[in-house]
Design brief:
61% of the residues lie in helices and 16% in strands. The chain is built from eleven helices and eight strands. A hairpin with a 4-residue loop joins strand 3 (218-223) and strand 4 (228-232).
């Protein structure tokens, strides 16, 4: 109450009116400048393909009057006679608010620019999109950490001692959250080593799916059945991962069996027929076909070929065409496929007493 009485005693109506006018003028100028900058940068962004122009425009839109209000109040207070402590308090608040506004601008600029980079990278470089997301997180932590240290320094705190104390406390925190840090470092390892990237189809143990997102703690996959699979990054890196997206060719091995009644000349011709069935497919590259073994109820042939595409649908179409071609050829040559059979030989004994 004494402070308010002192302010009224030391400042007349003219001073208060001037202070209010200065405060409102600062707010109006800042808001008008914000609008002009947004329009100017937006027009420039439409004329160019540079991602940084769009990021600057988005950063300008992040101007907050609430953060600039302490700056306007401090500017208006310059027209008043204030106690030293109050003047220093307003100065500190204005500086903290200004630092916070710069942090908001920097955070939005980094976030928007990296977001645009990630969108562009997803089209031709999914690995780059993963890297950009991690860099964005690190950059935003750096921005807000610097803003906090500058604000504390403006408030008179010993930042050097604070940083040293945080270093000691950080060790204790790291021990307490070592599992989270393990996932965080595993995320960095995924980004740098790139065992898989967004869009890859991978198999982990009994689970399979397409990578949707590589986060700081977890990696998310969309399975073939539609549900989302979530893996902790550290656990995922400790597992055996099969990345089918990077497969250039798909090696296929399958076998057929024909009956023991098949003539020898047709057995000798069979590998050639199998080879012709494979080579008739444009997506297939023949490797070998052999009479492998004498089975329990069949003469077994083994065929190996490569599909020149990692796509599973292409593989199944090719395999189906080869199977039908083999079926038609064996039917044409009168060779029968074998299936489990058992032959019983009956011996007729002579009648008793004959």
């Amino acid at each position: 109450m004494k402070l308010w009485e002192q302010l009224l005693r030391d400042n007349g109506p003219d001073e208060w009116l001037l202070a209010t006018a200065i405060m409102l003028a600062v707010l109006v100028v800042v808001w008008v400048a914000r609008g002009l900058v947004v329009r100017l940068v937006t027009r420039l962004a439409r004329r160019t393909d540079a991602l940084l122009d769009d990021a600057f425009a988005d950063a300008a839109r992040a101007t907050r009057l609430l953060l600039l209000l302490p700056l306007a109040v401090y500017a208006g207070a310059s027209a008043l006679t204030l106690p030293v402590r109050l003047d220093r308090l307003l100065e500190h608040l204005a500086m903290v608010a200004l630092v916070a506004q710069f942090a908001v601008w920097a955070n939005r600029l980094v976030q928007r620019w990296l977001s645009l980079r990630a969108e562009a990278a997803r089209e031709h470089d999914p690995a780059g999109a993963t890297t950009v997301n991690l860099l964005g997180f690190v950059a935003r932590i750096v921005v807000w950490t610097l803003a906090l240290l500058i604000a504390l320094d403006q408030l008179g705190f010993n930042v050097t001692a604070l940083v040293a104390g945080l270093g000691i406390g950080g060790i204790a925190v790291a021990l307490a959250v070592q599992n989270i840090l393990g996932d965080l470092f595993a995320s960095a390892a995924i980004v740098l080593d790139k065992p898989f990237v967004v869009g890859d189809f991978i198999v982990v143990g009994e689970h399979a799916g397409t990578v949707e997102k590589v986060g700081l703690k977890t990696t998310r996959l969309k399975s073939l059945w539609g549900e989302q699979l979530v893996f902790a990054n550290a656990k995922l890196l400790n597992s055996d991962i099969r990345n089918f997206k990077r497969m250039q060719e798909r090696r296929i091995l399958f076998a057929i069996g024909v009956t023991y009644e098949t003539p020898a000349e047709k057995l000798r011709a069979l590998p050639g027929w199998l080879k012709a069935a494979v080579e008739a497919q444009s997506n297939a590259r023949f490797d070998r076909a052999h009479f492998k073994k004498y089975g329990d109820f069949s003469l077994d042939f083994e065929i190996v070929f490569y599909v020149r595409s990692p796509d599973y649908g292409t593989y199944m179409d090719t395999q189906q065409a080869i199977n039908l071609a083999i079926f038609d050829k064996l039917a044409q040559e009168g060779v029968q496929f074998a299936y489990p059979t058992r032959t019983l030989y009956l011996r007729q004994e002579s009648a008793a007493g004959s």
